[in-house]
Structure formats: C-alpha cells, structure tokens
Amino acid sequence: MTSFCTEIKPIFCPSTNVKVTIAMQTETTSDTLTVRQRLIDAYIDRLREHGSPPLAVYPFCKSLGIGEKDFFSVFPNLDSVEAAFWREQVIHVITAAESGTEWEGFTAKQRALTFFFAWFEHSLEIRSLILLRFSDLGAFENPVWLRGFNQAFRDFAKRTVNHGISTGEIMQRGKLTELYPDGILTAFRNLIDFNLKDDSRGFERTDACIEKSVQLAFELIRSQAFDSTFDLARFLASGFRR
Amino acid sequence: MDQESIPSTKLSRIAALSGAGAKVGVNYLKYYGKRVLGGSDDVIDLHEKNASEIYKTFSELKGGPLKLAQMLSIDKNLMPPAYAKEFAQAQYSAPPLSYPLVARTFRREFGKSPTEIFDTFTQNAVHGASIGQVHRATLGDQTFAVKVQYPGVAESLKSDLNFIKPIALQVLGLKESQIASYIAEVETRLLEETNYTLELERSIELSRRSAHLTNVRFPIYHPELSSARILTLDWIDGLTLDKFADSDASQEDRDRIGQALWDFYDHQIHTLHLFHADPHPGNFLVKDNELWVIDFGCTKQIDATYYRKHFHFLDAQVLEDPALLEECLEAIGVFHGSDSHELRQRVLKICAVSIELLGRPFREGFFDFGDESFIQGIYQLGEDNLHSRDLRKMKGASGDVDGIYTNRAYFGLYSLLARLRSRVQTRLPEWLRELEVSEIETCTDHRRITVA
User: Which of B103, B107, B152 sits opposite A208 (nearest CB)?
Assistant: First the structure.
C-alpha cells in the first residue's frame, strides 16, 4: 500500500528535529538537470541565501554558465522563474495527495483537508522562503511570482468543487459556484498567514486552524452566506487587483 | 454589587473569545439589573440560563474547557446544580475530527497512515473522548480502540483555562486568589492528560498492580502502536457504567460491579497511593459481569505523608474530639493563621458534618448506596458549603490541593455507586484498623470536603 505520505515524507520529524531533503529535489542529478530546473534551483538558492532575488538576467546567467538565449527560451523574465518554483510546490503537493490510496473515496471536504495538511507538512521544507515571500503579502496582493501558485491551486480547488458538486456535497449555484475556488484560495492564503505566525509546538495550532477553517468553509458553502461573502470579497479585491 | 459586577474590560475580553462569555455576561447584567430595579431575585433561573450557554460553547471548544466541564460536573460540590446538570452532558461526544487530520496525526507520529498500519480503520470516530476521539481498527483477528488526540490541545489548554477562569469565578462568586491553587492543580492534571505517553505508562502500571482484584479487568495496551498523540488498546465490547446502571441488571449484578468498583478504588488510594482520578461512567465498561477500566487519562499520585493527613479523618477519634479535628484541619491547610476564633468554630462545625456524612460508608462496613438520602445529603452538603459565607471568608479556602483529586475520586465513586444502587462491603484502611483496635473504637470517619 502506498500513500502520498510516503512520497513527501520524511520531511520533518518534530521529536528529533531531523530534516531530510525532499524527494522532489533529490531525484535529479547535476548531469541530467534541465536548463529550466537549473535556473529555478539557482534562483531559489540565491533567494534563500541572500533574502533577495537576482536582479538581472545577465549576471544571473553568467554565474551559471548559461547563455541568455537559453534563459529566454524557457522563461520570459526573472519573475517567471520564481512563479514556476511556487507552481511546482503546489503541484507537487497536489500530486502527492491525489496519489494516496484513499483519495478516490474522499469527499471534497476531505480532499481539501488532505491537501492543506500535506501542504503545511511540505512547507516545513521551504519555510524560510515562505516567510520571506508571504509575510508581508497583503491579502489581495497578487505579484507575478505568485501567479503560478494561485493558478495551480485554483485548478485544484475547481476540481475539488466539481467533485463536491458531482456527489451532491456542494450545491450548484450557477455563476456563484465559480467563485468557490477563489474563496478556497483566500482561505489557503489565510492559513499560510496563520501558519507563519503560529508558534505552537510542531505548528499544531495550524492543524487545528485548518480543521476549523475548512469545516466552516464547507458549512458556508451549503448556505447562501458563502456566496454573499465572496461576492463582497471579490468586489473589494477588484479595487486592488492589477 | 461592586465586588460582583463584571468589569467592562473583562467582559469585552470574554465576549471577544466566546459568545457564551458575552451571553453569560448579559444574563448577569439582566440579573443584577433586575435586582437593582427591585425585581425578583431569581438566581436559579440565572444559573440555568448560564449553564446552558456555557455548555453550548464548551462542547464546541472541545479540549480544555470540555475537560474542565467534565471535572466540574463530577465535582458537583463546587457547582450549582444547574451547571452540574448541563456539564454532565459534556461527558460524551464532542464534534469529531476529520479523517484527514487523523491520518495526518498518524503520519506525524508513525510516518504511516492508519490504513498502512491496520487492516481496517474507521474513518469516523466511534466515540469522542474529551481531548481526543476513538477509532476502531483491526489487524489480523485483533480489534483495537485507537485514541487520537486533538492537535494543539496542550497548547490551547492554558489559554482555554484563562478564558473560563473569569466566568468560573463569577459563577461561583469567588476571588481569584481563593482558587488559584485549585486552578493550578486542575491545569497540571489536564496537561498530564494530554500526554498519552504518560497515560500509557500509568495504564500499564496500574493495570499490573491491580490485576489481582476480583471482577476488575483491564484491556491490553499496545506501546508499539502508541505515541504522544495516539494511544492504542484492545477493543472491549461492553456497556458503559451509566448504561449498565440504567439497565434492568439484577441487584446481585449491581452489587458485584459496585463491589469491584469499590475494591478498585480502595486498593489504588489506600495501597498504591496512585489512582484513577476520573471516575465518570464513560471510563468504565461492564462486560460478562466484570468491570473493565478503560481510561487512565487522569491519574493522581499522593505521597504517604499527605495520605496519612488526609485519611486521618477516617479515625473515629477525630469526630469526637474537636481539638483533634482542628489539628487535622490545620494540618491540611484549611485554616489560615489570621482566621478568627469564631470563624474557626463555625467552620469546624461545618467540617464535622461533612466528615460524618462522607465517612459513613466506611463506618457501616456494609453500605447500601441505593439509599438516596445519602447521596442527596452529599449534594445538599455541597450546595450548603458553596453558599456558606463562613467558608468564603476563609483565607486558605482551598485547603490542600492534593485533596482536590482525592475528593473528586471519592465523590465520583459515591456518585457512581449511587447510580448503580450497589450494596458494598467496606472497610477501613489497615493502618486505621490497627489504630482502631488500639483505641477500642468502632465509629470512624473519612474525608473532608474541599472547601470551595
């Protein structure tokens, strides 16, 4: 029996504080690394080490011994490199969660919960990056580097909502239903925010917060309150969006 | 009014944390409003309203408050009856944890999901425990009860307690200094309960050291399937003690189970000095006319010195000799140096009544707990003590903190036996029997009540 946990663990063992490299980054060796992956790795490494991203393509490529042409053949700009990284994090966790043996039988709510728990387990690996990038991020801010993250999560949320609709767990409400993925994304961002401020042992309070938030969200989905909330949220957000 | 009214800052803090806090506040304001306006002094009605509001919120909060609610529901001598009734309901089923969270807890603790460890594992909890929930699992031909703890319980416990403290103080009409040691002791026990590793150790130890008792059984615990947040033991199919009590069980069966319960507590307290301090009916099962003890979450250890002091009250001499009684009460910290002579005399009188009543089962040798007047007497005593101005005035007030759980154990035991309507053989602890023989006394006593 394989479950998704075997693929993303061992990540963090709270009792011993032992950290182990995540599978995703160990499966590639320097010889087989694609230019794309090398660029992402170098970008993130720099961000982690210096607390700031590379400022220009030329010196960045030069330090890697990669030509500019090769860079622009895979990325249109530097921000897109980071966007690709965040997108991969989300997709990695989604793939891991969806490949769990029990996934098929899960309700939409259980799927959302499973994703969140898996995300925050995985996030321990990149917590310094998340701290760096998400700490000062406004609730409705949507910088370029975050777009891949948002898009990947929205896709997952949409699939989850559709699953919920197909099983009758979530009510189909036409146009309003389309707002649900955005709503779940907002909840996700709030949870990230909560997690960054969480100082409990093993971030246990984040677990409790996930449980309670998702519980509330799915209760609201069944009532009109959810629709009204997100109608308002979207209205407010539209004022800040680019 | 000044001392009892709710400071507005405190009220708003409570309100921010919970609807119930606010509602209790409002109920109080209504009550005091009425009183000021010369309306009827319907304090019972107020208690009932508050109890139901608090209970609603506590059952939603789970964790600490639910546990404290349970504790207070047993320690009825600290609670107005209306609260006790509502809180008694808190002993079962809090809203369940989601399966993904349970699976996550498993992965954190064992690196594997429940279905990787067991052949089958119920996605939904089969029943709630106050700080966790129980799943049923199978592996081969074995069936297990797997207790999974709510995440962050230990962390949220302190803040939960801080949050209900002002409500509790208001409800009981006490000052913080009076129950500071009480709250601290409860907090320690509650924190202990979140430590499943300790629970496992204590369960195994107490089971082993009590294994010889007739009609008392313990499930097998599985350390290899347990951790700080998960506790696995054999699944026992049986009736919880309250269901058994309400069944049409024969008097003979009731006596047998009651006797097992009495012997179990007698052995733990008077021989082991380490006891199961959570005698609520959900922690016991009856199966094939035997009593199964299934939850050692709350245990209390008392040292020998304290034990002697506390149970000296069982000595018949103490009731007959007011000076000795005063000495005994002094020894366990009931009196404060500055308590006036008159106050002491009145408190002595109250304590003598308590001790006479609470020690009665020990004196009789054979005691019928089906006699409702006895347990009613205890409830009444708790109620009287709660409203006693003299006890309130006492500086020491709480007496010794070790007594909280000792008293709770006996109070719970008496309540359970009353519910079972059991008739049991009782006897004094050995050291007091020797004392008795030497003093040629027949009449003895036990236990004082914790002074709220």
Answer: B152
Q: How far apart are CA B30 and CA B36, in angstroms?
A: 10
pLDDT recorded at residue B431: 79
| Partner B contacted by A215 (CB < 8 A) | yes
> At which residue do the structure tokens 């430590």 appear?
B195
Pairing assessment for the beta strands B142-149 and B132-139 based on DSSP bridges: antiparallel
Query: Residue with structure tokens 């006596």?
Result: B255
Q: Write out chain A residues lying below 8 Å of B113, CB-based.
A: 3, 5, 100, 102
Picking from A184, A77, A78, A198, the residue whose alpha carbon sits closest to that of residue A131 is A198
Give the tens place of pLDDT for each residue, A109-152: 999 999 999 999 999 999 999 999 998 888 778 899 999 999 99
Q: Give yes or no for B150 touching A (CB within 8 A).
A: yes
pLDDT tens digits, one per residue of B217-238? 999 999 999 998 899 999 999 9
Q: Answer yes or no: are the C-beta atoms of B186 and B74 closer than 8 Å.
A: no
Q: How far is A124 from chain B (nearest CA, A)?
A: 13
Name the token pair of B79. 């609670």
Min distance A223 CA to chain B CA atoms (Å): 20
**What does the alpha-carbon distance between residue B187 and residue B166 come to, in Å, rounded to a whole number?**
15
Cite the DSSP H helix spans in chain A: 4-8, 23-26, 35-50, 57-64, 68-74, 78-98, 108-123, 127-134, 147-166, 180-197, 204-221, 224-238
Amino acid B79: pLDDT: 44
Residue B113 backbone phi and psi in degrees, to 5: -80, 160
The answer to whether the CB of A50 falls within 8 A of the CB of A32 is no
Query: Cβ separation of B113 and A5 shorter than 8 Å?
Result: yes
What is the chain A residue with the closest CA to B118?
A1
Residue of A nearest to B108 (CA): A13
Give the Cβ contact number of residue B71 at 10 Å: 25
Q: How far apart, in Å, do the first and last CA atoms of chain A sit?
A: 46
A163 and B CB contact within 8 Å: no
Determine whether the interchain pair A1/B116 forms a contact, defined as Cβ–Cβ distance below 8 Å: yes
Going by C-alpha positions, the residue among B139, B103, B68 that lies closest to residue B230 is B103
- Look at B152 and A117 and tell me if their CB atoms are within 8 Å: no
Q: Is A4 exposed, middle or buried (0-12, 13-18, 19+ CB in 10 A)?
A: buried
Cα–Cα distance measured from residue B214 to residue B263, given in angstroms and rounded to the nearest whole number: 8
Whether the CB of A21 is below 8 Å from some CB of chain B: the reply is no
Integer Cα distance of B427 and B436 in angstroms: 12
Give the integer Cα–Cα distance in Å for B1 and A220. Answer: 43
What pairs with residue B149 in β-bridges? Answer: B132
Q: What ranges make up the beta strands (E) of B55-168?
A: 120-121, 127-129, 132-139, 142-149
A198 in contact with chain B, both atoms CB, cutoff 8 A = no
The CA-to-CA distance between both ends of chain B, in Å, stands at 21
Listed residue (B206, B240, B205, B54) closest to B134, CA to CA: B240
Q: Give which of B297, B192, B257 is closest to B413, Cα–Cα.
A: B257
CA distance B100 to chain A (A): 5
pTM of the predicted model, to two decimals? 0.70
% chain A with pLDDT above 70: 82
Three-state DSSP class for B4? coil
CB contact at 8 A, B196 and B149:
yes
CB contact under 8 A, B100 and A100: no
CB contact under 8 A, A205 and B104: no
Q: Is A9 within 8 Å of B111 (Cβ atoms)? A: yes
Residues in chain A: 242
Which residue in the set A5, A113, A201 is minimally distant from B155, CB to CB?
A: A201
The residues, any chain, with a CB within 8 Å of residue A241's CB and separated by 6 or more, are: A140, A142
